[in-house]
Amino acid sequence: MDRATLLGMIGGIAVLTWGIYMGGSLSAYVDIPSFLIVFGGVIGAVFISFPFSKVIETSKILKIVFFEKQLEAEEVISTIVNLADIARKEGLLALEDSASQLKDDFLKRGILLVVDGTDPELVKNILETELSFLEERHKEGQSLFETMGALAPAFGMIGTIIGLINMLKRLDDPSAVGPGMATALITTFYGSILANLLFLPIAAKLKVRSKQEILIKEVMIEGVLSIQAGENPRIIEEKLKAFLAPKMRKNINVKKAPESGEINASRQTAKI
Asked: Considering the domain boundaries, does residue 22 fall inside one?
């Protein structure tokens, strides 16, 4: 569970509710028809804007925002350095066993390409192509919620217009003007809340998560190519650290591979 996402949403809703309660009645802000106009309109417009399969995948995208735990760059660098140490001691073919223990498919695929003796340039092209399409898929998820964030205030305004039309039809009853105006403005309120407390923050969180994952994948590509080139594990560690901010570099604690007889223990650290 991503505590920041959960804390932000619960905290935002709590503060808004508290502010409304201090200034008036909560029941005045509850209007089911207004909510249906805004939320239903946004959902309908999203189905028109995106393929059906992409909208259905929204639940998977939300899982990334709330639950998915991404790999830490420090952990990835530690694993790559240990793989480099194994390759240096036993040769590239010895990485096949270690690759089978890797949980990250991207790194596993890169290591197996190296074990198979694939040309370094081809390894780089395959991994970079996969990374490019991964980035495109991430952008589609972000754009879906950015679209919802842009549409929600617009449907809030549409709801307000609908409310005003209904109110103007009853101008002969002055007592109905005030409540009618308030009801009309609630849709604008709902649209703004959905856009600024839900849809746009989710799009922003997806963008941050995407950047983190792409950075880790770039570290993996550089690490795989360095292993294939037979570079010294210590040099690889320093090279990969350059991808990170200075503060993050301090958290890297690579367990050096043992000289002999303990190589299995080293391989245990190579699991991601």
From this structure: no
